[in-house]
Design goal:
With about 325 residues, the protein is an alpha/beta fold. The protein contains 15 helices and eight strands. The protein starts with a helix and ends with a helix. Bound molecules: phosphoenolpyruvate (PEP) and magnesium ion. This is phosphoenolpyruvate--protein phosphotransferase.
Amino acid sequence: LVAGLQSIKNLPCETSDHHRVALWVNTGLLADTMLSIERGAEGVGLYRTEVPFMLRDRFPSEEEQRLVYREQLEAFAPHPVTMRTLDVGGDKSLPYFPIEEENPFLGWRGIRVTLDHPEIFLGQVRAMLKASVGLDNLRIMLPMITNIAEVEIAQMLIHRAYDELLEEGYDVQMPPLGVMIEVPAAVYQAKELAARVDFISVGSNDLTQYLLAVDRNNPRVADLYHSLHPAVLRALRKIVKDAHSQGVPVSICGELAGEPAAALLLVAMGYDVLSMNATNLLKVKSVVRAVTLEQAETLLAEVMSLPDAESINRCLEAAFRHAG
Ligand code: PEP
Ligand code: MG
């Protein structure tokens, strides 16, 4: 399958009537990076910085982080690399930084942890800014944003790191800053959030979990976890509308972006960037290239009129079967 798809590796990701959408990748491990480059990724929409933290038995130093980030930025330069600040807690734990809670998904995770530990946040941002000197392809992204204040405090800390480094003589640039929308509260403040940042990126894995109140890792409720639930689709559509109303580009970096049928719906909604596991890149590109924007919009309109995830899935399966 992939051998056949290799022929489109260097072709643009656009509908057959030339509506362009950027296809980026999610990375963390070195293997993801290698595969991403092999598949012709145009950028990184989510670099999970937890990964280098998980591979150690203590917090990596600023210099250790700088080296890892530099390698990632160099591998993709001049393409953009979106580095997410540490997103621990919930299902992601560090062996040397245990967090014991009854409801970890509703607890101390993501930006909540790093704003309570500004030394972790500042060290990470300093390492990222230093790593980007001379490449300038860094973008910084904040996970689990629930309140405007979190964005403002993070911005203040990023400015502090930037000022410190300038004073220390580094030729650093201020990178574009974005927030993830993965908490329902953020969906309803998407406009206000977009007005304060350079880009918005939807974390549909967590957004689905929180909108549907279904633990993303609990097998007992796995059949209730539907990223194509009508409520999720409405949230996804609202986010694009609100971000674009502020002139801010919007991407999606949850697993949904890598599912071919879902990708068509996301293109029709107006997502500017789909960021996915590199293994799905060519499959998604081939599906996008096979339709017109109008066909994708027609499919979206049909799907949005359906009452539940089951009928939406059936509708998409039928559309794909019909198209061969
Ligand atoms: C998400 O929640 O969709 C996301 C991309 O972040 P993670 O899967 O790392 O929580
Ligand atoms: Mg998430």
